[in-house]
Amino acid sequence: MLVQEITRLQFDVIKTLGQRLTPLIEMGFGNPLLWPTGAVVVEVTDRDSERTYKLPLTATRIGDLILLTSLRRQAGWLQNLMANSEIRYWLAGRPRLAQAFVLTPDDKHAPDLPASTTCLARLLQQQSRLTGWSFAILAPRS
């Protein structure tokens, strides 16, 4: 009983903190601009309800690509990215369109990737199988 209450409290604190920080992150605070790792806001469409929501996530910028990771295989936002890979994210105070390529430990083959992401995706797939982590690569839409 106590463990459930603590877990619920942690969830509520993280959710409230995320709601408070999202507007600041959208404006560019904490974005991976000066340093390669920081926070971005990703707009995701729920695969079941079709509702769109914004989610602050830690990201690493590699050139024009954005790398997201999750320690949980079944993270809801990753499942939603697999269902709808056309997304929007905020960087430097501006919304940007991107296509998400999700890599999970269970993937046998790499998804159809643009040339700019192939090398990174191969490395991440190897890491995904070793660690059990899942990754999403956001490639900007032109």
Mind sketching the topology for me?
Layout: H1 2-27, E1 37-45, E2 52-62, E3 65-70, H2 76-83, E4 86-91, E5 94-103, H3 115-131, E6 134-140
Antiparallel strand pairs: 1-2, 1-4, 2-3, 3-6, 4-5, 5-6
Spatial order of strands in the largest sheet: 1-2-3-6-5-4
Largest sheet: 6 strands, antiparallel, barrel
Tally of individual helices: 3
Unreliable parts: none
What amount of the residues lies in strands?
25-35%
Helix-strand pattern? HEEEHEEHE
The tally of structural domains comes to 1
- Report the CATH topology name: Pnp Oxidase, Chain A
Number of strands: 6
CATH architecture: Roll
Distance between the termini: 51 Å
Bulk shape: globular
Instruction: Tell me roughly what share of residues is in helical segments.
Output: 25-40%
Mean pLDDT: 85
Which structural class is indicated by helix and strand composition? alpha+beta
Output the radius of gyration. 15 Å
CATH class, named Mainly Beta
* Fourth CATH level, the homologous superfamily: Electron Transport, Fmn-binding Protein, Chain A
How would you briefly describe this protein structure?
By secondary structure, the chain is an alpha+beta fold.
Structure overview:
- With 142 residues, the protein is α+β, with helices and mostly antiparallel strands.
- It has one domain: Electron Transport, Fmn-binding Protein, Chain A (Pnp Oxidase, Chain A, Roll), CATH 2.30.110.10.
- 36% of the residues lie in helices and 35% in strands.
- It has 3 helices and 6 strands.
- The chain has helices at 2-27, 76-83, 115-131, and strands spanning 37-45, 52-62, 65-70, 86-91, 94-103, 134-140.
- A 6-stranded antiparallel barrel has the order 1-2-3-6-5-4.
- The longest helix has 26 residues, at 2-27.
- The mean pLDDT is 85.
